[in-house]
Write a structure and sequence with these properties.
Elements (H helix, E strand, L loop, with lengths): L5 E7 L1 H7 L4 E6 L3 E3 H11 L10 E4 L2 E2 L6 E3 L5 E5 L6
Parallel strand pairs: 1-7
Antiparallel strand pairs: 1-2, 3-6, 4-5, 4-7
Length: 90
């Protein structure tokens, strides 16, 4: 881990959890403390085999949706990132 990278808790839900092959959470190292949301989502999708649903997921940082993927956010060690796929119900 480089001096500018940070370790976060990554949460997966529904289809993202299935595709990632994980039970629910994983530790993830983000290479830079300041990163654009779209770049962060790309890193996660590439690392966890989520490219197939990349355009259909919502990314949340500390329980706040990243509505604007062009926005740059600041991440700190221990932060929580969530990958939330579309949810259907009936």
């Amino acid at each position: 881990m480089s001096s500018s990278s940070v370790r976060v808790k990554l949460l997966f839900f529904a289809k993202s959890r299935e595709l990632a092959g994980l039970t629910c959470t994983d530790d993830f190292v983000v290479p830079h403390a300041e990163i654009r949301c779209s770049d962060l989502l790309d890193l996660i999708c590439n690392r966890f085999n989520l490219s197939i649903i990349r355009n259909n997921v919502i990314l949340a940082h500390n329980e706040q949706y990243c509505d604007d993927l062009s926005e740059t956010i600041r991440i700190r060690n221990g932060d929580e990132l969530a990958v939330i796929p579309p949810i259907s119900g009936g």
